[in-house]
Specification:
With 365 residues, this protein is of the alpha/beta class. It has two domains: 222 residues, 3-Layer(aba) Sandwich (Aspartate Aminotransferase, domain 2); 118 residues, Aspartate Aminotransferase, domain 1 (Alpha-Beta Complex), CATH 3.90.1150. It contains twelve helices and 14 strands.
Length: 365
């Protein structure tokens, strides 16, 4: 590997913000209608249509969306929720936030998503829900997981924070159960912060809307314990612009990923199952066993290729969960992958020259 540094930076992510978003925000500011209102309702309708679901409920952020989904299903004290450990910590901490217990499950080596083959062995009389994660934009095996949830009478909550527009055989994620999306700045579309819950269940949707707004079904009539998880009109205005570009941006991510996958030789490119639409929130590769992953990441960053590890430590090994006693879990695939994965730029802001440069530097590893 060439250790020389270069004056070049290709960011790992790049929020696509233009004049239309700026104008939309100014229109809201000028209107004086800043809190949840007509813009939020319009954004919810547009997102529901994009994801082909009946209901979309906007929230302050993606973590709030996960928590709201759990609350809407009545998950709480004494309940267990099956989740992967190879994910961002919010998947697990949202479970803690409703006083339930996360039960960590291993993932598939090829897709990085929760392994359906080990789910049933983890189900106990206390299991209340399964929460698969569509990691990096790759859908989890929802047909199989849906069948398991139905068989055991479990709630199904999709962590779709990274998977806007991902689909299986043309059916978008977000409607297999209840789902939570994030609009954080690095996501395939953004509102800066913000989240969305989606569902096809009328009853659960109505309850989620009440919980989001202090438990109110109408002004000052509090029917359930609720919180302030509302999105503002300011964020929704940005979202209404962004969603018009989301399909095109996803197509560009998929095209960029195809180029990278076809030309990179030194690491294993992402594997996409037949019939699955991976929307490449991240382009995550796997090093050979025994390779010095961290040295590779350091080299690529020094060469101007924004490279990150998502995620270097399984959630069950995070200090908070170690203190809670999650010490001796047998998750061999998860433990192996967290030592070997790293992510390369794949966002729609990349030029062909950028892609060629990324390939050249990765192939020098």
């Amino acid at each position: 590997m060439n250790d020389s540094k270069v004056e070049r930076t290709i960011a790992i992510s790049k929020p696509m913000i233009g004049d239309a978003e700026k104008q939309a925000v100014m229109e809201v500011l000028d209107s004086g209608q800043l809190v949840q209102g007509a813009k939020v309702a319009a954004f919810e309708e547009a997102f529901a249509q994009f994801q082909n679901v009946k209901h979309a409920i906007a929230t302050t952020n993606g973590t709030a969306a996960l928590t709201l989904a759990l609350l809407a299903y009545g998950v709480g004290t004494g309940d267990e929720v099956l989740i992967p450990s190879f994910t961002f910590a919010a998947t697990a901490t949202s479970v803690l936030s409703v006083n339930a217990t996360p039960v960590f499950i291993d993932v598939e080596a090829e897709t990085f998503c929760i392994d359906p083959n080990v789910i049933e062995a983890a189900i106990t009389p206390h299991t209340r829900a399964i929460m698969p994660v569509h990691l990096y934009g790759q859908p989890a095996n929802m047909p199989t997981i849906r069948a398991i949830a139905d068989k055991h009478g479990l709630a199904l909550i999709e962590d779709a924070a990274q998977a806007h527009g991902a689909a299986i055989e043309g059916q978008p994620v977000g409607g297999w159960g209840m789902a939570a999306f994030s609009f954080y700045a690095t996501k395939n579309m953004t509102t800066g912060e913000g989240g969305m819950v989606t569902t096809n269940d009328d009853r659960v949707a109505a309850l989620a809307r009440m919980i989001r707004n202090h438990g109110m079904s109408q002004q000052y009539l509090h029917e359930v314990v609720g919180f302030n998880l509302r999105m503002t009109n300011i964020l929704a205005a940005i979202g209404l612009v962004q969603i018009n570009y989301l399909a095109k941006w996803n197509e560009q991510r998929i095209a960029n990923a195809k180029y990278l996958s076809s030309n990179i030789r030194t690491v294993r490119a992402p594997i996409v199952k037949d019939g699955y639409q991976h929307v490449f929130h991240q382009f995550t590769v796997v090093t050979d066993e025994g390779a010095d992953r961290d040295a590779m990441v350091k080299y690529l960053n020094e060469r101007g290729v924004g490279t990150r590890v998502y995620y270097p430590l399984p959630v069950h090994k995070q200090p908070i969960f170690q203190k809670m006693g999650f010490n001796d879990l047998n998750l061999p695939v998860t433990n192996n992958l967290t030592r070997r994965v790293f992510s390369l730029p794949v966002h729609p802001g990349l030029s062909q020259e950028d892609l060629e440069y990324i390939v050249a530097e990765v192939n020098h590893l």
